[in-house]
Structures are given as structure tokens and as C-alpha cells.
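Ticket 4471: requesting a sanity check on a complex prediction with flavin-adenine dinucleotide. Repro inputs:
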Amino acid sequence: MAKTGAGKSVSDYDVIVIGSGIGGLTSAALLAKTGKSVLLLEAHDRPGGYAHGFKRKKYQFDSGVHLISGCGPEGYAGGQVIYKTLQALGLENEIEFISINPFSHAIYPGISLALPQNLDDFVQALAAQFPAQREGLKALTELCLQLAEEISIADELMAGINHQQGQALMPALFKYRKSTLAEVAAEFISDSKLLGVFASNWPYLGLPPRQVSFVYWSTMLIGYMVDGAYYCKGGFQQLANTLATGLQRYGGQIQYRSVVEKIVLQQGKVAGVMVKEQMITAPVVISNADIRQTIYKMVGEQYFPSRYLQRIKKMQHSLSIFVVYLATDLDLLAMNVAHESFCYADFDHDQNYQRTCQGEVSWLSITAPTLVDPSLAPAGQHLLMLTTLLPFDEPEHWKQTKQQTMDHMVALAAQSIPQLEKHIIFIEGGSPSTMRRYTGNYQGAAYGWDVIPAQVGPARIQNQSPVEGLFFSGHWTSPGGGVYGVSVSGVQAAQKILGIKKQSDFWQVLNSQDGKQSLFHHQILS
Ligand SMILES: Cc1cc2nc3c(=O)[nH]c(=O)nc-3n(C[C@H](O)[C@H](O)[C@H](O)COP(=O)(O)OP(=O)(O)OC[C@H]3O[C@@H](n4cnc5c(N)ncnc54)[C@H](O)[C@@H]3O)c2cc1C
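Returned C-alpha cells:
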């Protein structure tokens, strides 16, 4: 029998994970900790998916990620999932997160505002510009916190109660589960400019106020405001590397440059995968890869119920993204540039989104990671990432328009960073087709399925598929996109595989002296 890595037989894995995005890595490492033999197969030459980093000359760039939440030990009840994962793996002290406070700057014609962490400071900062709206703003922000806390315990509670009891225990979730941000915000604030400023971070979810789920918006906002916003020292590749270390520490294996071509089924159940014409067997496969690729290419649609396929066909995916990676010798610190600034010409984000959907670049985010981590570039230089959402197009389109898009984005950024054009030492662009090329995500979607109300919570594609032995983690499944969302998905997929309903029980199992023995105990008791 063929061998892989340190002599492990290829036919006796408990779990194979396809893809080392943060969702796949989280599931793989946590399952390894419980004693499962895990093999992770990754198409690229390094872990991370959209969270991977790359080096050019002496510059260490993030391919995409600017900021994440959930990596500190404290925050709202039920949050901190990345911290809990690293702690369960015994790695929380082997990685450094740098707190970013204020977590964003919002720049509009006539208004430039820092958005601080901490609920009271956030309300205070916005109310200073919109004093008549203070009470409504405070109530809206507190509702976001209530929702974030309710959502984090929803699965646990729903496991043992009926609809009526659920409504009593999670009133905000039941009331607002089908609402958009714009619908709920209108109950509390009436100034359209304030709504614009409040929603400045909408590109983090890829949808404007009139479309984005209020529930998902709340978890994102409260994540940054209460759990805390962080940059990862050394770049987000370090987060991926640390999770990969966790997987290997507990006996798991990773194979890079390994594209899974097929998920093999026998009698309707998962039996393994095909890589480089070799079959590797396992009764359980978690796909962290693009979900349509998984269903239609790797498994075959004939194995899925037709209602499930009809749902997949109707699902709406997120926009893609264009990033300009550049190095400059400008002294960004002296110029008061922030870690991340969202720059808009218009307060109306529904309009901004419409322009984006038509391929127009009218706004961008400017990130300057070297302000908090100078090790990413040589002394006296800074890195900038200029980011905007854009629809997908084929490589030929970008060959013709890439330079023009980059020039335009640099010119937009120069409105906030004067003289930028004259101080560029290095520049490169990543188009939507680059995003697809590196991750296989459909049309380079930045966040998987859109987080509209009809595609979140129970309405999202769940972590357990209808095919026996096939599970999903990542931004095409529950709960949704963003690094924090996919970390939660990784935990949920592992829980489903182990049959542990409550997340609190899951952490207890993982944090016991011997996760494996404790899991056995849990299974006997439940
Ligand atoms: C430019 C950009 C900026 C972003 N900024 C932020 C941010 O600041 N904060 C934030 O929280 N989120 C951000 N996001 C969103 C976030 O990065 C993603 O939602 C998240 O990282 C997706 O993780 P995932 O687990 O779904 O896997 P993905 O990152 O989608 O990775 C999937 C992995 O599977 C592998 N794979 C695919 N098919 C196969 C196959 N057949 N065989 C083997 N391997 C395969 C791919 O190579 C890839 O490594 C950003 C996204 C982009 C694109």
C-alpha cells in the first residue's frame, strides 16, 4: 500500500479535508486534537486560501485580509472563537495579534471620522457629529450587541427547546432574523448621512444596508467593537501557519500542491478522494473548496436530492475584489494615515454598491499594515493595500483594463494620501480572476454566498451535506463569510462530525487533559 508523509497508510484516515482556507484548517486541527487521523489536501503551495500572504522583493503582503475579530480572550458572551481554537490547540501564545483601535476610519466629503472599539466610544464618536441622533444610535448599537450574543448561543438553545421557548430566550433574533440593516436602522436613526457612516464597513460583508442581513451585520460590527479588531503580526499567513502547526502537532498531515479531483462515493456514502490519479480513503470528507465545484465536479449532482440542487442554483454569491498592493517611501505615520480607511464620495452605500456592480470604481479601502507591523517592509517604507469590490470578468478583460483600474485606484487614494503617485516603489494588482486562480472560488467571490437574510442562519447551506460523510466548512456554508465566520464554520463542521450539539460541550472536550479520552466519555454519556 502507498505511504504518505511519515509512513502513514493512505487508506486509514478518519477525515480528509479539501482546502486549507481558515475554515478548513480550523476543522482539521480541532478534529486532530480529538484523536481523529486527519489529512488536509491543499491545491496551493501554502496554507490560508484568501488569508495567505506572499513575498515580493523585501515586502511581505497579505493577499487580502486586513483585520479580523475573535482572537482575544475577552469580549461578548459566546464570541472569541479564534482565541478558543488556538487555546484548544495550545498555541494561543505562539502567535501575536495587534489590537487596532480605532478599527476603521470613515472618510466622506466633509466628514472624516475614527470608528473606535468599545460600544460607548463608538456611539460617542458618531454622536459628536450627529448629536440629535445619539439615543437612537445607542439603542441601535445595543441591539446589535444583543443580537450577536443571542446568535452565538442560538444553536445550543435550539437543540433542546421549542419555537415558543426560543422566542422568549432570543427575542431580538426572532424579531429581526429576516431584516436588512437598512430596515432596522430606519427604526432608530433618521439621518441618511449617519446611516452611511454607521454602515461604512459594509464592504467587509460585500453588501450594502438595503441588502445585508441585520443579524450578520450585528455579529460583524460587535466582533470588531467588543471582541476587538486585530492585525496578525507578520501578516495573516502566520494565522494559517499556526493552525497548520496545530494540525501537525496532533498527528495530522498536510499535502500541498494536491488538487482533489474527485470525491469518491460507494453505495451513496463518502469513501475517499482522488488526487493525482490516486485514491485516498476516508469515511468523512470536509470540503473547504468552492461548493459548486464540490457538488458538480468532485461528487456529481446525481448524488444530491433535486431540492438541494434547486436551492444551490438559486443561491446568490458575493462580488469579487480588486486589490492594489504597493510599497511607498512616504511617511504615512507623520501623515496620520490609519490602519484602514474607507473612502467614499457618496454617503449612500446602496448607490455605491450599484456603481460597483456596474464595474465602476467609485470608493476604496486603504490599508497600511506597516503602521502596526513595521517588520513587513524595510525601514522607512510602508505597504499599502487599496481594495474595492468588483464583479468578475475573465482574464482577457483584466489584461486590457488592469493597469487602468490600478491607476484610477491610486488616484483615488491620493485624495487622502497626497503625492502618493510620485512615491510608489513597488506596485502590483490582483484582479477578480487572480482571486479565482489562487483559491478556486466561483468567479473569485470574496465572501462565498451573499449574507442576505434569505441566505443566513437556518436558510444557509448547512455544514452537513445530504451525502453521508460529506461536510462543508468555509464561506459557502454556515454561518457565512469573513475570517471569523469561516472559523466558526470550521468549529461547527467538527462538531457535526463528532456529534456534539452544544459548542460549550465541544470546547470542554477539547480543553480536557486528553481531548481524545474525553470525547469517548462524551459519546458514551450522550
Ligand atoms: C481581497 C480580500 C480581502 C478580504 N479581507 C478580509 C478582512 O479584512 N477580514 C475578514 O475577516 N475577511 C476578509 N476577507 C474574506 C475572507 O478572507 C474569506 O471569507 C475567508 O478567508 C474564506 O475562507 P475559507 O475557509 O472559506 O477558504 P478560502 O480562503 O476560500 O480557501 C479555500 C482553499 O481551498 C483550496 N482548494 C480549492 N479547491 C481545491 C481542490 N480541489 N483541492 C485542494 N484544495 C482546494 C484553495 O486553494 C484555498 O486554499 C477578504 C477576502 C478577500 C478576497
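Notes from triage: The first strand starts at residue 3 and ends at 4. Leaving this open until the requester confirms.
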